[in-house]
Design a protein that fits this description.
single chain, alpha+beta, Glutaredoxin, globular, 30% helix, two-stranded antiparallel sheet
């Protein structure tokens, strides 16, 4: 009986371990591996290209999501405010175009040119970068800071607290985070929930 009880306890423990959520993607304080992805202008872009950058505002974004559309002008605003201060915006489209046809590379090029993008809009064709970051939604922001040890994750989440109405925003999470980093202070809120459409992953 004791043996059966012992075996039952082991099996229960194994089941609990199997049921435990698997942590995927970067967390606060992790060092980010650089990527090299194709931009809308056909050039390959990596974070290493920005020799003088203090960090980056990496945003997983797309053409088709209503939330992405609502945030588009605010993303332009972030780049305008912070690129010159050492924190440029880099946007990455993670969606599988066979599922979301409006996110094909041709459509990425069209949107970037029509809206005069002055920051990278990259395509993650293999979705490896999106998986590595742990991106789940569009838009989903990861702020990374250049340190002696590498590019460290300093903030993950939403751009602000109102996805529908820019005029009704009361908390600007990304701005608060970058301002703190520029001032050498702790980021006031390191993680928030990214609000947006789920990423369209490739069928396995």
């Amino acid at each position: 009986m004791k043996t059966l009880s012992w075996i039952g306890s082991i099996l229960c423990g194994i089941l609990l371990m199997a049921a435990a959520p698997v942590n995927e993607g970067y967390e606060i304080g992790d060092i980010v591996k650089d990527f090299r992805l194709k931009n809308y202008d056909g050039k390959m872009v990596s974070m290493a290209d920005y020799k003088d950058a203090k960090g980056f505002i990496v945003i997983f974004d797309c053409n088709t999501c209503p939330y992405s559309k609502a945030y588009n002008s605010r993303i332009f605003g972030l780049n305008k405010k912070y690129a010159s201060k050492g924190f440029p915006v880099i946007t990455i489209n993670p969606n599988d175009p066979t599922i979301s046809k409006g996110d094909s590379y041709d459509e990425i090029v069209k949107q970037a040119k029509n809206k005069n993008y002055n920051f990278p809009y990259l395509v993650d064709e293999t979705q490896e970068v999106s998986h590595a970051f742990g991106a789940t939604n569009t838009p989903h922001v990861f702020i990374v800071q250049r340190t002696s040890g590498g590019l460290k994750v300093a903030y993950i989440g939403a751009i602000d607290d109102n996805s529908r109405n820019a005029d009704a925003v009361t908390k600007r999470y990304v701005e608060d985070a970058v301002d703190a980093l520029l001032d050498g202070k702790e980021v006031p809120q390191v993680k928030t929930k990214a609000i947006g459409c789920t990423i369209k992953w490739k069928n396995s």
